[in-house]
Amino acid sequence: MALREGNRQQMGMMPPSIEQYIPDDAPVRVYDAFVEAMDLKALGIDINPSKEGNPCYDPRAMLKLLVYGYSYGVRSSRKLEREAHYNLTFIWLMGRLRPDHKTIAEFRRRHKEALKKALGQCVNMCMKLDLIAGNVLFVDGSKIRANASIKNTWSVEKCRKVLRKAERRIEEIISESEAIDKEEEGMPSLVSVSKELADAQVLKERVSRIMEELRESEKPVVNTVDKECTRTNSVHGTHAGYNARVVVDDGNGLIVSCDAVDANNDIGQFSRQIDQAQEALGQKCDVAVADSGYAWTDDLAKVDKQGIRVIVPTQRIVSQRAPGEFDKENFRYDRDRDCYICPQGAILRYGGVSRKRYSRAYVIENRETCWACSKFGRCTTARRGRKVTRLVEEELRSRLEREYGLSQNQAIYKRRGEKVEPVFGHMKRNLGVTSFLMRGRSAVRAELSLLSVCFNLRRMMTLLGVEGLIRALRRVSPVPVSHRLTLSQTIIALSQLLTTRSAVLAR
């Protein structure tokens, strides 16, 4: 069977313009149109062509490189540099500009605030195109590793352990040095002993500084490489990382806002994420949805007070455990008298609030009543008698639990998994985001914003098609189309004219 073989020496007529290599429906044209439609001044990027000095790379071109590269899992500055040299779509997108990896990394570092605002402009475009309504919002999060090792994460306990070990070793080295001093044969080994002693003292000083930093920051742990990350626990183990969060619109599953926090759980984050999403939308949402990890009643109350319907299952619902004979659910609460009545008829009166003021304690009116009760030992073994606690927002929790069970709310909650969970699946599996590249919470938020823009653009292409999205982006652009488009069209026209002229002369 004959083989079809290539020939690198074959002469051919190549298209005179790189523009002709890129089809009209190539996805790269969407990224070009998107960045051209952005208002760089609103992002905080200054463009001054008349500025004196060595000309810098066009910020639009650099932004295109980052957005397009991140959309295909190319995030490393060195890999982006390589793509700008050898990948045809990158070469077209950059207009043959070839920045080195240091320039790319420096642009990304210097424009963190602009990258964080990029998602806001993307959301604004989506709203103009009626792709985001903002009525129903879903909140979710996922833990992503930081650009730091867990070995560089220190707690007070770890510091004390290392300090004790270092101090013991220093004492041992000093004792060895004194013994060596008495022996002439041991003199040559004093050099290595002195070095080991110096290393141990340096370690002691370093750990002491870390302990002081822990006391000042009042954090449970601190990482010496990325000081704003935290210790995260997941099914994949313990790592230094961030808790990345996104808020997604119900309509087309587009990301409305994103954030990265240094917390190992979701407690107290629900209201904050909803507020950020509403600020990005410029309007109040009607329904806010999240999983049981966000079910901290005091935090849910902040959203409920805004008149927003909250659909969040409590831990009590998720556990699906039937209340035991002596659980609080079998104690009747008398609102008028502000007391609980146990199944045996004894009264538990209000006895104060918890240290964090999240709950109120109710204790037996007369502890001897508990001692004489036939259920004592099974209901409680405390000498002061039975005690139950009631959340300050107990009535709100009960109401939210009832509303969660409504069929219409169940239908909305079921859509949560379809809309918000694919976001992190796409980032981690398709884009290969196993860890952030940048350090510091501000930089990590910028990187997460960039990834969110990439996800939205992919969804928008699915919804509108490549050419349809390009037309839509040009329609909603707050700034006039860049001169580069006109220039490229001019080049094509000139190339066609030259080709035609050459053909005529050849005749």
Characterise this structure.
The strands form 3 sheets. Strands 1, 4, 5, 6, 7 and 8 form a 6-stranded mixed beta sheet that branches. It is flat, with a radius of gyration of 32 Å. Strand 9 (332-334) and strand 10 (339-341) form a beta hairpin. The chain has helices at 28-36, 40-43, 59-71, 77-86, 88-94, 101-110, 112-128, 156-181, 190-217, 270-281, 297-304, 315-319, 367-372, 394-404, 407-419, 421-430, 441-464, 466-476, 483-506; strands at 136-145, 153-155, 221-223, 230-234, 237-249, 255-261, 287-289, 309-311, 332-334, 339-341, 347-353, 359-364, 387-391. The model is unreliable at 481-490 (pLDDT under 50). The longest helix has 28 residues, at 190-217. It is of the alpha+beta class and 507 residues long.
